[in-house]
């Protein structure tokens, strides 16, 4: 096995890529939540000036990359690759959003784990010497996701208590071979894990075993445990999934209760905003990472964190056909020190 | 710019990864076509023994990987990563097909360019020293694609003359750091190119400018031209798109008429099988590459080829909303010599 791999599944990056800049965008609900001040842009118009919600999501993808570029003082031509994805059928949020920028494009589908998948591959492309600057990004939109996965929003369907709220949000990280940090030091690629959960309104429970699998593999590979990190963030398991991850680790004698949070529980206010089990969508963990988390690392709130977004790899068709819900979780370790 | 990159967009792999094994699967129509003898498995049952076509496509993804593993004498646990994608909403062909194998999974969405995207990223992961063995694969299914993009097959809708036929096929390449070849020597990542074509029944015309863009960038970066290769294969442009690519190069004074073919024109028999403009779908170029092309390299028919599959990044929703069709084309150079 190659020397860059430690243990079975984790890569320790030899020259950890640096965050060069980051940006996020949110909608009205995100602007009313506790992380509002960590957004670069909040837009009350769910159409973002466009005629359809799908075009709005594409606009978010384009704008969030432009903002990250501005903050780094770069032009689209300075970026070697953009790795992006979203929840829409055929990922039209990313492909239509990014088509005018002319940056070499690797399209990803990792459901709500996409921000982790993009950061992982972007880091490997840079550390491998194939790129100097790479953009990693993801988005979701409440109205496009409701129409596609459940019911069109104007129908006013009732949501079940375990349901999560798809964030209208996007986040972009520009990574570079050189920079002041924070740095991506480790990458663990997720496996598809399916424990037989069939309720598409309880995706936290479906994804929790994948988060447990990836985090456990990472801890084993690196010979570390939760106490070695200032904070650990999954996303977007919501309350129920967060609870299950802690339970699964408890059975192994590992205490996750002290510093483990979930992006889906951070984005909205449990009391003031009725989001049921919490936030979800590619944009939820993407916006939390490219706002609250990276700002916290920059400002010294944390020195080393794990970011492990989770995705539910279902479609309405797979659920109609009685399938259970496979989950996946990609992890990156982010540190202020190389 | 990093030394591994030559020109603006192409990576010359320092230790070109080797094809370790390859496999493909096709359906009834593929078994009646001119490439039938290059398939490892041909199945007359469009359900592949499953209850739905979507489950059938997942079965193809699983089986094609198992076949490639068998041929290399490997187990799923020997594979460091699998990179896979398909055309289905939320890519359920790959995620459901691969969930039981427990291999770290990077999900891709590149429409019909997915086989090229998977080979490109797999090669970079190996050359970067992050993996020893990686599987790259893609699939499509006529009946799942018709239902999703156009009309359910039982409706018997008429197809337009420029329409292509989505292949029921899958292909998998196992790449490794060590091996007897053929080798992936160069990778060029595609840009999203949109020239304003809006007819979803004429995807060859929509994707041709992307193929031209990537091939032109590759020729410029490597200071080579069509005559430096034994054969050049795009996929899946079909007849019309193939014509357009030759026209675009003709305007540059570059002759593509001698050795340029398209996977969509190879898979079916123009006279005996009425496929209109040709084959398409992720599985078309994936099956042609992992059969006819790699066998041809192995048997000495060619020594150096370009494989440049093209994807149309549309969805039914984007077409309903009046959007044009963005295309993308990822390229790999495959050679019997390192």
TrEMBL record, chains A, B:
Pfam families: SpoVAD
Domain of life: Bacteria
Molecular function GO labels: acyltransferase activity
InterPro entries referenced in this protein's UniProt entry, alphabetically: SpoVAD, SpoVAD_sf, Thiolase-like
NCBIfam families: PRK08304.1, spore_V_AD
Protein's name according to its UniProt entry: Stage V sporulation protein AD
Source species: Dysosmobacter segnis
């Amino acid at each position: 096995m190659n020397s860059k791999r430690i243990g079975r599944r984790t890569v320790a990056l030899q020259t950890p890529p640096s965050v060069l800049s980051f940006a996020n965008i949110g909608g009205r609900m995100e602007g009313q939540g506790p992380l509002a001040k960590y957004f670069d842009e909040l837009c009350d118009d769910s159409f973002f000036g466009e005629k359809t919600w799908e075009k709005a999501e594409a606009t978010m993808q384009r704008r969030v990359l432009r903002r990250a570029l501005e903050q780094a003082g770069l032009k689209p031509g300075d970026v070697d690759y953009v790795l992006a994805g979203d929840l829409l059928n055929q990922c039209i949020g990313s492909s239509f959003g990014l088509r005018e920028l002319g940056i070499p494009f690797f399209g990803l589908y990792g459901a709500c784990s996409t921000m982790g998948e993009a950061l992982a591959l972007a880091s490997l492309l840079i550390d491998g010497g194939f790129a100097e600057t790479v953009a990693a990004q993801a988005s979701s939109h409440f109205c496009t996701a409701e129409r596609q996965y459940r019911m069109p929003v104007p129908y006013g369907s009732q949501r079940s208590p375990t349901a999560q709220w798809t964030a209208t949000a996007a986040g972009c990280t520009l990574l570079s071979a050189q920079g002041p940090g924070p740095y991506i030091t480790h990458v663990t690629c997720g496996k598809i894990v399916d424990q037989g959960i069939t309720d598409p309104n309880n995706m936290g429970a479906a994804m929790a075993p994948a988060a447990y699998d990836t985090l456990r593999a990472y801890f084993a590979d690196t010979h570390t445990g939760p106490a070695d990190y200032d904070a650990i963030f999954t996303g977007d398991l919501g309350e129920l999934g967060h609870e299950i991850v802690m339970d699964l680790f408890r059975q192994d004698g590992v205490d996750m209760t002290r510093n483990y949070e979930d992006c889906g529980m951070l984005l909205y206010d449990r009391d003031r905003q009725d989001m049921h089990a919490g936030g979800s969508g590619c944009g939820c963990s993407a916006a939390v990472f490219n706002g609250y988390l990276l700002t916290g690392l920059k400002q010294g709130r944390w020195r080393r964190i794990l970011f492990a977004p989770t995705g539910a790899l279902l479609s309405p068709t797979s659920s109609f056909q009685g399938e259970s819900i496979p989950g996946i979780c990609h992890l990156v370790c982010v540190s202020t020190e190389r």
